[in-house]
């Protein structure tokens, strides 16, 4: 599975989002954190900004909905131009139905798990998804320290993906940086959201390239990748 680097615009300059998108044109996706101040204690942006950003960049948008009632709102983000939409299982009323609706609209369906949410109860749902997001911090704010205790959960998720022979992307989000990305890759992640590690760098595009090189090197040596 190819390594993918998704810079998070949560760490970008919101007054210059079009320019900030261009600054990471070598990235695979732009990660867009949507927060409603209810599911998480922070408020960021919504559908109008996603619509504008989709027009301003050729990089596909990976929208992470940290909101209540994603069953109601997620389809609007597909309509706004998101190519991948992630909802939190803790907030979804009917996750299978929602994943199928997102896919039917032509986008990739992704489900996120907060740090305290185990993956095992959702094993049967995995075939309905294109990506699973393991949060490696508590959602709500950028710049948090990586939670090492999530590494075993990443490994268990990778084992479940292998067990069922799924082509499911495994994304990590939170504290991903030069000092943590290799551990995430070794554990089984293949899609990496990086905010401050990219936009806090002097050259964001170079930061993306460097993170990709680190992740690819770690993946090449990871036991799960060799087995795959």
Secondary-structure blueprint:
Elements (H helix, E strand, L loop, with lengths): L3 E4 L9 H6 L7 E6 L11 H10 L4 E6 L3 H11 L3 E5 L6 H10 L3 E6 L17 E5 L15 H13 L5 E5 L7 H7 L3 E4 L1 H4 L4 H18 L1 H5 L1
Parallel strand pairs: 1-8, 2-3, 3-4, 4-5, 5-6, 6-7, 7-8
Helix pairs in contact: 2-3, 3-4, 6-8
Walkthrough of the structure:
It contains nine helices and eight strands. Helix 6 (181-187) links the parallel strand 7 and strand 8 (191-194). The model has no long low-confidence stretch (mean pLDDT 96). Helices cover 37% and strands 18% of the residues. It has helices at 17-22, 47-56, 70-80, 95-104, 151-163, 181-187, 196-199, 204-221, 223-227; strands at residues 4-7, 30-35, 61-66, 84-88, 108-113, 131-135, 169-173, 191-194. It has 228 residues and is an alpha/beta fold. It has an eight-stranded parallel beta sheet. Helix 2 (47-56) packs parallel to helix 3 (70-80), helix 3 packs parallel to helix 4 and helix 6 runs parallel beside helix 8 (204-221). The radius of gyration is 16 Å and the shape is globular.
Which features would summarize this protein structure in a list?
228 residues, alpha/beta, eight-stranded parallel β-sheet, globular
Helix content: 25-40%
Strand order of the largest sheet: 1-8-7-6-5-4-3-2
Strand content: 15-25%
* Number of separate helices: 9
Average pLDDT value?
Answer: 96
The run of helices and strands is EHEHEHEHEEHEHEHHH
Shape category = globular
Residue runs with pLDDT of under 50 for 5 or more positions? none
Broad structural category: alpha/beta
Distance between the termini: 8 Å
Number of strands: 8
Summarize the biggest pleated sheet: 8 strands, parallel
- Radius of gyration from the CA trace? 16 Å
Keywords: Carbohydrate metabolism, Cobalt, Isomerase, Manganese, Metal-binding, Zinc
Binding site for a divalent metal cation: 31, 33, 64, 173
Protein name: Ribulose-phosphate 3-epimerase
Binding site for substrate: 8, 64, 140-143, 173-175, 195-196
């Amino acid at each position: 599975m190819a390594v993918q680097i998704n810079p998070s615009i949560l760490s970008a300059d919101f007054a210059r989002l079009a320019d900030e998108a261009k600054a990471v044109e070598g990235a695979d996706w732009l990660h867009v954190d949507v927060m409603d101040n209810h599911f998480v204690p922070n408020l960021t942006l919504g559908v109008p900004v996603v619509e504008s950003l989709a027009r301003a960049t050729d990089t596909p948008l990976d929208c992470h909905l940290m909101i209540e009632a994603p069953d109601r709102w997620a389809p609007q983000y597909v309509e706004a131009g998101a190519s991948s939409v992630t909802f939190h299982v803790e907030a979804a009323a009917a996750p299978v139905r929602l994943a199928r609706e997102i896919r039917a609209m032509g986008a990739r369906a992704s489900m996120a798990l907060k740090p305290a949410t185990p993956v095992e109860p959702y094993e049967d749902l995995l075939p309905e998804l294109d990506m699973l997001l393991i949060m490696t911090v508590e959602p709500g704010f950028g710049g948090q320290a990586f939670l090492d205790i999530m590494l075993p959960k990443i490994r268990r998720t990778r084992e479940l993906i292998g067990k069922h022979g799924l082509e499911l992307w495994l994304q990590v989000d939170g504290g991903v940086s030069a000092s943590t990305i290799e551990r995430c890759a070794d554990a089984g992640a293949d899609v990496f959201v990086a905010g401050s590690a990219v936009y806090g760098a002097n050259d964001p595009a170079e930061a993306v390239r460097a993170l990709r090189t680190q992740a690819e090197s770690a993946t090449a040596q990871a036991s799960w990748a060799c087995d795959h």
